[in-house]
């Protein structure tokens, strides 16, 4: 666990999700990290300083003008003594203040004064989350290099349904681990692209950030059963490795695979499509995003917390709900869309025709199409033959090892990043 031995400054904002922050403190401690908390005035309406202090084992800070706190630990020191600053729940109000650079209480002052990376876990009503003002603030924060985890979709405390539930403590802790992981020229210098460009690094992708999804997703039915897609992750992992070799800062978001993490790549492990989307959103901004994962189209509605029992009666009926389309979500971002968004299409017939259709439906720039029909040996194998489909052309590569396909594709994407669609 990368958080082991590290210090997290946790800012608890004023939302009903604050109760989950107590579990987050425990999860970080369980992983060996230390947590120091700032509890906002509104946050203290939902959880008490006593419970926060008991779980973190540290003083709970809340007042910018407290003489005693300020003498023991000044607000600048508070914001810098951590390895990572996490705001969870990050309310619409807190996000708006951060986007504006306001500093009118201890939490916002610490957020503005810190020289460390910031991760936020937004939590709010779905209408507030979808409001253009919040979308604007989110885009500004991402551009400033703030990482974001969640929110999740689901039922809200207010009775409405949609996106706005704070990510689960385990997912937030995973994002913390990913951000604190030692990686290529990474964290001490911050996440924003201009800082990254200052990193001396070799290769045509130096200064560029690349995001790759790979592997299948796994959607639980009950604690022992799941729905999934066939995917070895070999092509996606090879793409991530190839981009890193050309000097890019690479984040790989991978579903469960039997492959080692590629060297020089920050790998975030997820299981479900919802977790994959959250990890992808956390990893943005990126210059190039390649969606190679075989994401399950559906998940089971109302996953059972207990193993479903086999009985003599009829087998259970599974009811399915649509998973978010990660590629389409990112390709259609109004702000913070990666410059080049690439999707994959695995088809068993009419490969090019379906790829063209997918290009239109998903809003991406390129589709890499391959025939995975029986007898091709592509699925799980070490070789692939692909067609690179853009709105006005199709270029086919011959059957080659997946590592060589990856190298050729990454070189082509690099050219497109530099020269635009004509490359
Ligand atoms: O719609 P289909 O699954 O065939 O589209 C394949 C492409 O879309 C791949 O790039 C895959 O990674 C991406 N995808 C996604 N999220 C989904 C389904 C597919 O990112 N829920």
Structure description:
The chain has 423 residues and is α/β, with parallel strands linked by helices. It folds into 2 domains: 174 residues, Rossmann fold, CATH 3.40.50; 227 residues, CoaB-like (Rossmann fold). Helix content is 34%, strand content 23%. The chain has 15 helices and 22 strands. The strands form 6 sheets. The protein has an 8-stranded mixed sheet with strand order 13-12-9-14-17-18-20-21, sandwiched between helices. Strands 3-2-1-4-5-6 form a 6-stranded parallel sheet, sandwiched between helices. A two-stranded antiparallel sheet has the order 7-8. Strand 17, helix 14 and strand 18 form a beta-alpha-beta unit. Helix 1 packs parallel to helix 2 and helix 5 crosses helix 8. It is globular. The relative contact order is 0.09. It binds cytidine-5'-monophosphate (C5P).
């Amino acid at each position: 666990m990368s958080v082991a031995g590290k210090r997290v400054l946790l800012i608890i904002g004023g939302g009903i999700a604050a109760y989950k922050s107590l579990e987050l403190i425990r999860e970080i401690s369980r992983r060996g990290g230390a947590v120091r908390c700032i509890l906002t005035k509104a946050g203290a309406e939902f959880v008490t300083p006593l419970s926060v202090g008991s779980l973190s084992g540290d003083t709970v800070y809340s007042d910018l003008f407290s003489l005693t706190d300020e003498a023991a630990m000044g607000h600048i020191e508070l914001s810098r003594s951590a390895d990572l600053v996490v705001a969870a729940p990050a309310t619409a109000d807190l996000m708006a203040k951060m986007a504006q650079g306001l500093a009118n209480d201890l939490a916002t002052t610490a957020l503005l004064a810190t020289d460390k990376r910031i991760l936020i876990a937004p939590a709010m009503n779905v209408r507030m989350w979808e409001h253009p003002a919040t979308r604007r603030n989110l885009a500004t924060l991402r551009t400033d290099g703030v990482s974001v985890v969640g929110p999740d979709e689901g039922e809200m405390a207010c009775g409405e349904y949609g996106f706005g539930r704070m990510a689960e403590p385990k997912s937030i802790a995973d994002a913390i681990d990913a951000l604190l992981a030692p990686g290529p020229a990474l964290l001490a210098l911050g996440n924003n692209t201009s800082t990254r460009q200052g990193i001396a690094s070799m290769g045509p992708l130096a200064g560029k950030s690349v995001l790759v999804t790979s592997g299948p997703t796994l959607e639980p039915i009950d604690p022992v059963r799941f729905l999934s897609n066939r995917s070895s992750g070999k092509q996606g992992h090879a793409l991530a490795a190839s981009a890193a070799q050309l000097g890019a800062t690479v984040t790989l978001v991978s579903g469960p695979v039997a492959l080692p993490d590629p060297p020089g790549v920050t790998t975030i492990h997820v299981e479900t499509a919802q977790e994959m989307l959250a990890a992808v959103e956390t990893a943005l901004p990126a210059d190039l995003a390649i969606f190679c994962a075989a994401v399950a189209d559906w998940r089971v509605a109302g996953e059972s917390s207990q193993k479903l029992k086999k009985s003599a009666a009829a087998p259970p009926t599974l009811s399915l709900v649509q998973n978010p389309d990660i590629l389409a979500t990112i390709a259609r971002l109004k702000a913070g869309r990666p410059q080049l968004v690439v999707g994959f299409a695995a088809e068993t017939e009419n490969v090019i025709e379906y790829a063209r259709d997918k290009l239109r439906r998903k809003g991406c720039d390129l589709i890499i199409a391959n025939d995975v029909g029986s007898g091709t040996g592509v699925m799980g194998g070490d070789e692939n033959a692909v067609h690179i489909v853009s709105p006005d052309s199709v270029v086919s590569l011959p059957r080659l090892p997946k590592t060589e396909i990856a190298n050729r594709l990454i070189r082509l994407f690099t050219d497109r990043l530099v020269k635009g669609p004509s490359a």
